[in-house]
Each structure stands twice: as C-alpha cells, then as structure tokens.
Amino acid sequence: MPAVLSRTPLLEAHLRLRAKMVPFAGWEMPVQYAGIIAEHRAVRTAWGIFDVSHMGRISIFGDGAGTLLDSVITSDVLGLPTWRARYGLICDETGGIIDDVVVLRENDETWTLVCNASNRTAVVDWLEIHRPNSRELHIVDDTKDSVMVAAQGPQAIERVSNIFGPSIKSLKRFGGVRVEWGGVIALVTRTGYTGEDGVEIVVPGAAGMELWDALLSAGATPCGLGARDTLRLEAGLPLHGNDISLETNPIEAGLERFVRAEGGYIGAGAFEGMRQKGPSRRLAGFRALERGVAPRHGHAILHDGTQVGEMTSGSFSPTLGMNIGMGYVPTSLSAVGTRLSVDVRGTSVGVEVVPLPFYRRQI
To answer: Hey, what CATH topology would domain 1-278 get?
Structure first.
C-alpha cells in the first residue's frame, strides 16, 4: 500500500455522509455508508450513485488513435460507430489479461478509454510502448483531473435525464454523449458495473461536488465499493485481480465473445491455439447448498476431498438470499449441476455449478 493514498475530489462528501473509508488500489475510497445490503437493494429496486473516480480515464486522440486501440484491444474497435462504446480486453502476447476496459469512440480521432484503477499505469505504459511514431497522436491520463460518478438502477435514467436533459433517455446501451451542465461539459455513457441500467458521468474535478449533490437531491442513495462488488458478482461480471488477471485468458474466463476472430491485435496468435485446443479449466459460477459463511476469494474448491480449483470471488447475494461465488475448475467439472465443495476456513461447504449470470435484470 502506498504511503500516501490518492483521494477523489468527492472525499469531503463521503466524510459528510459518514462513509467508512478504506484503502483500495492506491485510493482512499468509501466501502459503505448506511450498509452494503441496504445500498445493494437500493440499486436493484430504485437507484444509487457510486464515486468511481478511481477508475482510469485515458484520452487518446489525434492521427492513428483508433488504429492504436484496435491493435491492443481484443474487441472490434475500428468497427465502432461514433458515440458508441465497447467492452474489451487488453492482453499480452501469451493471452494473459492485462486489463478489461471500455472504449468510447467520439469521432475518428478522439477516443476515451476507461480501465481499472489498479492497472491504470500498466495500461498507459502499454499504449505508449505500442503507439506509432507520430507527434500527432496523444495519450493523456485525465484520471486525477476529473470526477466519475456511476448512477445505477431501474430509476437512474429517468432521474438523471431530469438533471441533464432528454438526450440521456435516448442513449442506447453503450451509447455516449457530451452535454453542457452547470457551466461545464459532462461526458455521459450508458454503461455500468452492476447488472442494472444506468449511466456513468464524467465532469471536471471542480464540478464533482456539485454533480454529487445534484444526484443526491434527486433521490439517489449513496453507495460504496462493498455494494458495487456484490452487485457485479450477482451479474456475473469479472473483477480484474480476482477473476481475471495476467495468469488467466479470455477463453477460460468465458469472455471469448469479446475476442474477435480475425486477429490483428496483440495476443491473437495465442487465442487461435487456445480455441483449437480448448481450455483445461473454466471459470464457473457456484451457489452454496447450505447456509453459513460465504466462500471467498482464495478458498480451495474440492472434488472428493482433493483440491481441483480456487474461488476467485464469493459473497452473500442480497437479491437471491444465498451465498454465491465464482472460481476456476477443470473443464470436466464445470458443467451446470456439478456438485463440489469449498474449504471455508476448515469447514467443507457444498456447492453446485450454476449458470452465469446469477442475476439478470428485467427488461
């Protein structure tokens, strides 16, 4: 942990709301306000807001910006229409996942990439290493100059449109727009990490408190990283550093749909071999067969008393009322309905493989 933690411009707001603050990826962040379960349920039933300013925000613009991103991201970047975003993976030559990202195309020469906080430096370095030799291409890390707030939940679009205008309602999933608000320009994308509908809003750092207070005044529940984690787990969304990493690849992680087949990007050669051979292990979803302490990251997965894998994520699911988790097991043991057990601090807990995601919102 760094000696000095970075702080978002919303720190004062979190302290005012008596948030419990914790170190996370080099930042001082709110893990909860009223409580994780209450915040989780607010997002599932109404709407909540999250300070996600720790997430990396990188602007890539100028001649060759799209070509650079297309060469390092597994999904089809150049095929994106303007003002559309796409999820993808940045992998090394062996197929290991450096990070999972969302990239937005504003126009042919202006792009925004959002990455995980803990991987921001690695992503910027990777872009710099693979950039073409052009003075007209610029890679700018905007993270500490801006605020990013996620508004998530079934009421989020309606409530945010009351603040930013009707253009928010017309946004398609993974669409984006820039709107003038409060004397600044806000970037709004219909994206999120909770399994619910909603938007992520980026404004200059100086306008962050005004944005946060406007969303609170509109009825949003403030939510911390604890609820964000249980929400994304229910939605079957991987967390880099837990469920995916440099030691995992998209095929075994069930992310093959985000890896384009035609190649032309770093790691493509490795994926071709993986597809032909098939993965030796798979990331599977589990539900506990009994009540008790939830399996957590790092707990051993057992088959007939022998360790065959490891939990990568686990928690109590407030929506489903049961303990759930994800972990890697041999492909032969990854079929839905397979029963295994997890060593939870010396206690064997029965689990069953279930389909992912655990939760899917009603459309």
So the answer is: Gyrase A; domain 2 (3.30.1360)
Residue 308, number of CB atoms within 10 A of its CB: 17
115 residue type, one letter: C
Contacts of 122 (CB under 8 A, 6+ apart): 98, 99
Q: pTM score, two decimals?
A: 0.97
Of residues 215 and 1, more confidently modeled: 215
CA atoms within 13 A on the CB side of 231: 30
Grade residue 282 by pLDDT with cuts at 50, 70 and 90: very high
Copy the structure tokens of residue 177.
Answer: 């727009």
Homologous superfamily, domain 280-354: Aminomethyltransferase beta-barrel domains (2.40.30.110)
* HSE, side-chain direction, 13 A CA sphere, residue 195: 25
Contact 272, 315 (CB under 8 A): no
Average pLDDT over residues 310-320: 98
DSSP string, 15-67: HHTTPEEEEETTEEEEEESS-HHHHHHHHHHS-EEEE-TTSEEEEEEETTHHH
For residue 355, the 8-state DSSP code is P
Residue 165 pLDDT grade (very low, low, confident, very high; cuts 50, 70, 90): very high
Residue 1: predicted pLDDT: 46
